[in-house]
C-alpha cells in the first residue's frame, strides 16, 4: 500500500532532511547508491605502516567476558581470536580449534581439538588448560556477560594439552556459533591472573595484533604481535582506532586522509564518500536488526518475573497491531536511511538458511489500523511515549514514526536520551516504547533466545509466551536445518502476534576506505578484519 499524500507531505516538512552528499544532491527517497558487497581485496599488500581507523563510539572494557558493545567486537576481531569464526559465506570455521567440534550422539558432549604450538601475545603457551580457564571465567564470573551464551555448558574438562571436552546440561546446537563470538575468545591465563577483574585494562589474547594502549574517548592502539602463529600473513605495523562519534566528522576525516578507514558510515554520508575518487565503500553486516520494543510485561526488570504494565499499548494487543499497521517500513528505509537498509518485520535475515519462506510482512494498512483503534474504545489520540537515542538519525526515525502513527490515532511523544541510558531504561522496564537494536548472530538462536524469551536479560519488552519459548528451546536442541527453521518460524510468528518488538529493518554496515588500503575482510557480522590488510604494493 502506498503512503497517503498527507503522510508524504508530513514527511517532507520534517527537519533533518536527508540529502545525499555530493553528486546531484538528490533526496533520501531517490534510488540508493550502489555499494559493493565485496568482503576482501586480494591486491598485493606491502609490509609496514599504520592504519588509522575511525570508530563510531568508544568501546566498553576490552574484556571478552564483560564486553557488550559492537565497537568492542570490532577491536577484538583483530587482537582476540576465538575457537571458531565465520567466513565470507557466514559458514562456521575453526580458528583456534583445528576442526568443527565432535558432538556425541545425545548432543551433550562436545569435544574440541586445539591448534598446537600457538602462543598468546605475551608469550604464554596456548593449550587446553588456558581454554578451560577462559571458558570457566566466561561461564561463572559474576561480572560476565557471557553467562547466558554458555548457560548450556555444565563443565569444561581438559582431555589432554590440545583437547577440551564440554559437557552440556542439554543438547545445544548453537554452541559452535556462540564460541565463534566473545564466548569463544581465549585469554592469556598469565594476564588473567595478573589483571583479575581489570583484565580489560591490559587485555592479552592470541591475535595478529596486540593491545598497546588506550586513551579513553580518544583512541585505542594495537601493534603487530610478534608471537602470532601466522605472523607472515600480517603486514601492518600498527592499527590506531580513533573514536569519532559524529558521522559527518567521521566522513570528513576519511576524505581528508586523517583516517584511512571509517566504520559504520551513516547512510547520509555513503554517497558523498563514494563520490570521492580516492575513496571506496564496501558493505557488510545484515545479521542484526533494529525496531521498536514495546513494554508489554517488563514491570520490574527484564530478568524479573513479568507483570502488568499500565499503558494502552501494553494492555491491548489490538492497539499494538494498529500501531504496527500504521508503519510503512519501506518508506522508513527510504526516508531515514536512503534505502540502504533492508526493511523487514522479523529478527532473522531474509537470506538466512533458517528463515522460513512463509514469513511475510504485512503492508501498511491505515484503514485497518483506524478500525482497530476505534474498536478498542480507548479515547484518541492515544498517548505513547517513545524513547529514542539522542543522535540525529534516531531522532529522525522517531519523528517519522510519530507522523505515521498519528494518522491512526496515536499521539507519540518522543523522549531522547544517551544511548546507554536507553538501554538502562529498557532493562529496568521504565519505558513505554523504545528504539533499540541488536548487531546479530549467524545462528538465529543468538537473535532470539535472551531477546524474546521469558526473563531474558535483553528481553526489554517483558514478553513471556510458551508459544515463543518452547519452539526456540526445541530448535536449539535440533540439528536438522529444515526442522530448526520451522521451529523458529513458529516462534517468530507467535512473537509477531504478541508484538513486543516491532522489527523495522536489518541494518547493513558501510565501511569507507581509502583506495590505497587493501586486504580488508568484511563479512556479514560487520567486523572489519585487518589480519592481512595493509597498503597496496
How is this structure best described in words?
Helix 10 runs antiparallel to helix 12. The chain has helices at residues 5-12, 70-76, 128-140, 175-178, 189-195, 247-256, 270-275, 312-315, 317-325, 329-337, 366-376, 392-406, 419-428, 445-448, 466-477, 481-498; strands at residues 45-46, 50-55, 84-86, 92-94, 102-103, 109-113, 153-160, 163-168, 209-215, 219-224, 238-243, 261-262, 279-285, 289-294, 342-343, 382-389, 410-417, 433-438, 501-506, 508-514, 517-518, 534-536. The chain contains 16 helices and 22 strands. Strand 5 and strand 6 (109-113) form a beta hairpin. Strands 9-10-11-2-12-20-13 form a seven-stranded mixed beta sheet. It has a six-stranded mixed beta sheet with strand order 15-19-14-18-16-17. The protein is α+β, with helices and mostly antiparallel strands.
